[in-house]
Write a structure and sequence with these properties.
alpha/beta; globular; 46% helix; seven-stranded parallel β-sheet; 250 residues; Rossmann fold; 8 helices
Length: 250
């Protein structure tokens, strides 16, 4: 089946959209997948059931990735039921309001940092002792092209995604001697369910800025995550892999 060394993958925010696609792709490549969610129980159950129907292994894992206590309990439950997590895909996100600088507050910035810095940290801390002892572990952070583009009226989100990229590099250096790889995938705009109301004009305007003249698909991002989780990526760490069809070419 898979060429992965690790057995259980946690994908946060995996009840729909990019997270669901990544969960399915990892399961197809041989991982047992913990499908994390916080409110969309129906969506998470549908993703997990689809994986099982296709011959894979999955379970839902309900916990708020920004809550220290919930993360500890949730990770322990995953370890007890399908095994210790050896791949973390930090994908969960919250609301992403567009706000002019005059409208932004420190709380708006903290809202984003909780998902893109705090959550990866507290999840990693639950498994780090075990990973270091066994010289195993992979982390794939899901960033965004906005960290490079600097979208206006989006500074709270852009800053947090940029912080996640810096975290990735720092962790890669610190954890490399322990055999732990840490990378970041930076997608462009990938229309999923929550973008269903987007106008054709907006989609066309974005496509014109992409070298490949199309928007990305969830499968484009998922394939990159699967690669970074595989043995083929054993010698890759601390990197940002951009998946945006050339949107950020200089």
């Amino acid at each position: 089946m898979a060429d992965t060394r690790s057995r259980v993958a946690l994908v946060t925010g995996a009840s729909r959209g990019l997270g669901a696609s990544m969960a399915r792709a990892l399961a197809d490549s041989g991982w047992a997948v913990a499908v994390n969610y916080v409110s969309d129980a129906e969506g998470a159950s549908r993703v997990a059931a689809g994986i099982v129907t296709a011959g894979g292994q999955a379970q839902t894992a309900r916990f708020d990735v920004t809550d220290d206590s919930a993360v500890g309990i949730g990770m322990a439950e995953i370890a007890k039921t399908i095994g210790p997590v050896e791949l973390i895909v930090n994908n969960a996100t919250g609301p992403q309001p567009t706000l002019l600088i005059e409208e932004q507050t420190w709380e708006h910035h903290l809202d984003q940092l909780r998902f893109f810095v705090k959550a990866p940290l507290i999840i990693l801390q639950t498994v780090l002792g075990d990973w270091r002892a066994r010289k195993v572990g992979r982390i794939v952070n899901i960033g965004s092209e906005v960290a490079e583009l600097g979208d206006p009226a989006f500074g709270h989100y852009v800053a947090a995604k940029a912080a996640m990229a810096g975290l990735t590099r720092s962790w890669a250096r610190e954890l490399g001697p322990d055999g732990i790889n840490v990378n970041l995938v930076a997608p462009g705009w990938i229309p999923v369910e929550r973008h269903s109301g987007t106008s054709p004009e907006t989609l066309d305007a974005y496509r014109r800025m992409v070298a490949l003249r199309r928007t990305g698909r969830p499968e484009d991002v998922a394939a990159t995550v699967v690669f970074l989780a595989s043995q083929r990526a054993d010698f890759i760490t601390g990197q940002t892999i951009v998946v945006n069809g050339g949107r950020t070419l200089a």
